[in-house]
Amino acid sequence: MAADTTGPGRVRDPLAEALAPAPPTGPRTASTPRVAVVGGGIAGLTAACALAERDVEVTVFESEPSLGGRLRGWSTTLADGSTATMTRGFHAFFRQYYNLRALLRRADPALEGLVALPDYPLVHRDGPRDRFAGLPPVPPWNAAALAATSPSFPARDLARVNVPAALQLLDVDVPGAYERLDHLSSRDLLDAVRFPPRARHLAFEVFTRSFFCAPERLSAAELAVMFHIYFLGSSEGLAFDVPRSPFPRALWNPLAAHLAALGVRLHTSHAVETVAPGGGGHRFSVRTRDTSGAVASTGADAVVLAADPGGTRGLVAASPGLGDGPWRDRVARIETAPPFLVSRYWLDRPVRPHRPAFLGTAGHPSLDNISVLERYEDEARAWARRTGGSVVELHAYALEAGGDPGAERRALWKQACAVYPELAGARAVDSRHETRADCPLFPPGGYRDRCGVRSPDPFVVVAGDHVRTDLPVALMERAATSGLLAANALLERWGRPGHTVWTVPRRGRSAPLRALARWARRPTRR
User: Fold this and answer.
1) Separation in Å, CA 403 to CA 161, 307, 414
2) CB 166 within 8 A of CB 271
3) Would you give the DSSP letter of residue 353?
4) What tens digit of pLDDT does each residue of 242-276 get?
5) 508: helix, coil or strand?
6) Domain ranges (residues) in the chain
7) In the structure, how many helices (H) and strands (E) does the chain have?
8) From the centroid of its chain, how far is CA 68?
9) How many angstroms separate the CA atoms of 373 and 355, rounded?
10) What is the pLDDT of residues 460-503, one digit of tens each?
């Protein structure tokens, strides 16, 4: 499923690694295997596509009314009578997302549904601003140029940096980085490194919060791996694309048509209640319930568990025949990150024309970023042109559980007005607010206990952004990669060829920097 480019006019990093699938473990099965995929998000759709391309009969069950998982969209009617598409918020399709982009290319070979954003500006509440446009593409000069040109890295503060600790960010290998750093939190690592406070907020904590949690709740290994992915492991940097239309139109409707042409059956609004031993020649019986309450059972030779963390926990708990005791206990311990809030406003006047499409923020109580949708999305642009207004979206990534939703929304709007003062004079024609808590948490010390793709039953595999892959991937790309690995695990059992998996290099690409980092962490001898 790998593609030869990562975006219009962009050639994939030549040092990206191609991981060949394992060879088949037996002869090709005479009959066509049947697979039930639980979950119609990125992981499930990737697995479904990879299996269907190898002549496997696939049925996807999605509990929501539409495909896309956390990137799904749905229609809503605004107070002015116009129809809009609401989603769960902005997502950046980074150029290192090789497997995700390969999936999208199945239905959109030129990735015309994506548009590039020129920059990734970050601004602190106290005023400092960083930009990632114009950095050299080749590591380690990209990171060096950022430190040399950023106002967040003043020379007098850089003198305080703990160089041996900082060098650990230069010697990232997977899974070795988890073995060395997973016992620490991201905050522990940043405290040890002693980066300048502004650099810490803008260059690191912004990225830890993209995991929907505060730095003290995120493994330091995840932070180090993310630094590797975007800086020292690839020359793609922080350049990214976004869908030029709402998610369903840009991504999922074309992919659904492609999957249907492959023979994949897509059942939305069908919640999987249990997976039990099957009959009639099938290994499993998958029991589903639709929104009308109708119950059905579908036979399957294998199952891909590609629901979100809570959905996977609940399904395994309700299916006592799945796996063994230790594996079931491990699934039960999958943690969910704190709640996050997405607020979208259709405003009666435009924001100032120089406002970027996306702005990351730091130093605020809960505001993590602001998006101006008409800068890149055609539906929002049409509404803004017709009304003279703007469509603005606010994100708060790590809220306290049990907080008052109304108070959180008001506080988030107030913080946004401090960043974009013109918002204070705008009237909301309408607004929509989504508060969810269904993203995975990667706490310190959790890596060894994390579920992998394979389960004790070779015909039950797990996929999703919460799954351990032992590759330097994160967020949406982890979901796509795990879906591909899950499909490969089944294909090898059935004597069918698997798919190549692409990743940024699994270790730092500079041998001298790796050697320096290893020298710095050597035991001190007396």
Assistant:
1) 37, 26, 17
2) no
3) T
4) 999 999 999 999 999 999 999 999 999 999 999 99
5) coil
6) 17-70+246-335+445-503, 130-237+508-520, 338-436
7) 18, 24
8) 12
9) 11
10) 999 999 999 999 999 999 999 999 999 999 999 999 999 999 99
